[in-house]
Amino acid sequence: MKILTVVGARPQFIKASAMSLEIAKHDGIKEVIVHTGQHYDSSMSDVFFDEMSIPKPKYNLHVGSGSHATMTGKMMEGLSEVICNEHPDWVLVYGDTNSTLAGALTAKKLHFKVAHMEAGLRSHSMHMPEEVNRIVVDRISDLLLCPTETAYNILSDEGFDRYPCTYENVGDIMLDAAFYYQSMAKRPLELRLFNSDFLLCTIHRAENTDQKNRLETLIAALYSVADHKPIVLPMHPRTQQALLKFNLSFDHPNIFLIEPVGYLQMLWLLTNCDAVLTDSGGLQKEAFFFHKPCLILRSETEWVELLDVGNHQLVNPENTCMIGMLKAMQNAAGQYESALFGDGKCAEKSIELILNWSQN
Question: Which CATH code of 3.30.70.20, 3.40.50.300, 3.40.50.2000, 2.60.40.10 fits the domain covering 184-340?
């Protein structure tokens, strides 16, 4: 059996690593990895393949940045040639990026089976390009691998029982990765002398970086938090470009800007921080895995179950005292039910489903 894995963005490299480890246990399965080049900066791409021992991509499409239409079109053009050349039994896609959409659409138009990891997520905001990608990819996939019971129920409510597909709750693939790599966590070099309690912050989404007023407001809100506690902020290339474009900066003595970090360094930050402030979908979950309160710097989240446990809250920097919210969450007992995202055996269950489908 041959599985063609399509990745293109930082979170997908982490997810793919856990699946690759499981695939390697099966002599009868060959994996071919295609990197679309959606994240092409070495700090957001190469470092993950190096430090996590992920098999190197056989193909790199080098798509780079551009509009959604341009990127997706270039990816589909490149993937069409690759898929026809490799003729895989399955095309495996992750999450909700343009790489995910391109991989699923291309495979389906060429009549190859598609497995979608992280199926069934919904933020219920069609203004998010990721939401459009999720809905389209779910609808055309043959095997939908849901990370939570909530995601599974969403597909049931949307009538997926009527479609010629299979959907199952296998748990979250990022929990597999967190379990496996936690003991390998490494302190970022910039923080080798850093011993203070700190908050971990990441910012990269378009809704926070593409408009000057929004980014200014967010910076001011983080200043108010940094007045009380240090913030460590790995600088995403997209955010850095936005700061240059709008002539803005993070100029606060208690905000420590560092270069983008690899996954093992992020695990160290998660393990040692007091709480997380982020607009990242993946980091929201990882904060939960490591029992850290999290302020979600967005107006909605696809991980809606996190809002029900009391450790995570959506926040609007324009009218909310974020430091007060953080203190309230830290003082509360909170719930960190590991079963919410499965048992760390998502990859094993997913491969079993793929093998069973093929045998039937």
Answer: 3.40.50.2000
How does pLDDT run across 221-247, given as a tens digit for each residue? 999 999 999 999 999 888 999 999 999
Annotated catalytic residue 124: no
Q: Which CATH architecture describes the domain 2-171+345-359?
A: 3-Layer(aba) Sandwich (3.40)
Cα distance between residue 278 and residue 202, in whole Å: 5
Mean pLDDT computed over every residue of the chain: 91
Catalytic site residue from 35, 39, 116, 204:
204
Tens of pLDDT, residue by residue over 322-338, are: 888 888 887 776 667 66
Return the number of other C-beta atoms located less than 10 Å from residue 159's C-beta. 8
Radius of gyration of the chain (CA): 20
Q: Nearest 5 degrees, angle CA 70-CA 73-CA 75? A: 105
